[in-house]
């Protein structure tokens, strides 16, 4: 079979067939009387073998070794191909992500594109100061795609940079809430906790709804951040979680402050006081928890709290009794 017909049947160009011949990968078995290359069935079979191995990403040099070295073992080479393919996919995925984010920024010209690229690079810098400056400038100089800000906020370990990123996301309104909601379900605890703290910075009803849902989150720290944020927003649904925080001692001072702020009406104050008293009498909490509950009661106005403090002033635990007595004295002095 002549080279032209081989090219048509195999899909390999005549030029590439000549290149294979120059490398010694395949040599036509014979020549016609006029000197044209003539390929045998075995030659054509080898061409198909070459193309099959190339489709796996092997170099022509490796293809030659695979076909001609009797002791050649493919396992190591295939493993290396797997590694290189993964690296290539990761690089291409990163490039695609960057291009999508530039597209989302809707650049008006190449200056905007370059500015967005620079800001994205700064957000990924190893320098915390550079990342912080990028976050603070993101809303003023070149708009950064919300997706990039969310990704940075959920992965940022530095407290100062994280604060700047939460501020930047709060300025975008609700644009990042869907992605942050996904962060609440992340397998990593730190990601979940960064997500709820970022949501807490967004002053919107949709953010409040997410925080309400987070009160039932299996992660106690996530529940705590959500409860504190809802307490600041005056949402009474947070009361049970805040009382739990007082009992557990986890951010108990902040939780007690939030309960005091929520007790803004007589009815609310009585409900909160009843919740605290209920925990005092249920299952005999350990001594430190009883003292924290007593201290929290001291900040709640109303008759229910005062009556509970009067009883606690005669408590067998001297620290509880002294706290309750001091709180009653402060109330009487008002």
UniProtKB/TrEMBL annotation:
Keywords: DNA-binding. SMART domains: EZ_HEAT (SM00567), HTH_MERR (SM00422). It comes from the Bacteria. Residues 1-69 form the HTH merR-type domain. This is HEAT repeat domain-containing protein.
């Amino acid at each position: 079979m002549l080279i032209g017909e081989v090219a048509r049947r195999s899909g390999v160009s005549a030029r590439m067939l000549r290149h294979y011949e120059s490398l010694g990968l395949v040599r036509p078995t014979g020549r016609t009387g006029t000197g044209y290359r003539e390929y045998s069935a075995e030659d054509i079979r080898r061409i198909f073998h070459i193309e099959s191995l190339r489709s796996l990403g092997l170099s022509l040099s490796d293809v030659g070794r695979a076909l001609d070295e009797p002791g050649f073992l493919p396992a190591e080479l295939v493993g290396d191909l797997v590694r290189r393919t993964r690296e290539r996919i990761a690089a291409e995925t990163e490039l695609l992500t960057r291009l999508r984010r530039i597209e989302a920024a809707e650049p008006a010209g190449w200056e905007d594109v370059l500015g967005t690229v620079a800001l994205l690079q700064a957000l990924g810098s190893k320098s915390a100061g550079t990342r912080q400056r990028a976050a603070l400038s993101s809303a003023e100089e070149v708009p950064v795609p919300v997706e990039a800000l969310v990704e940075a906020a959920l992965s940022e370990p530095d407290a100062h940079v994280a604060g700047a990123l939460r501020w930047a996301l709060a300025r975008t309104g609700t644009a990042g809430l869907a992605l942050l909601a996904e962060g609440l379900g992340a397998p990593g605890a730190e990601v979940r906790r960064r997500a709820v703290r970022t949501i807490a910075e967004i002053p919107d009803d949709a953010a409040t709804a997410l925080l309400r849902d987070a009160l039932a989150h299996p992660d106690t720290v996530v529940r705590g951040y959500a409860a504190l944020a809802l307490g600041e927003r005056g949402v009474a649904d947070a009361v049970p979680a805040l009382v739990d925080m007082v009992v557990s001692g986890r951010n108990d001072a902040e939780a007690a402050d939030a309960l005091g702020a929520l007790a803004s009406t007589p009815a609310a104050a009585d409900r909160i006081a009843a919740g605290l008293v209920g925990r005092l009498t249920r299952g005999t909490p350990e001594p430190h928890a009883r003292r924290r509950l007593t201290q929290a009661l001291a900040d709640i106005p109303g008759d229910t709290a005062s009556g509970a403090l009067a009883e606690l002033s005669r408590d067998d635990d001297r620290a509880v009794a002294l706290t309750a007595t001091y709180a009653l004295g402060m109330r009487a002095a008002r």
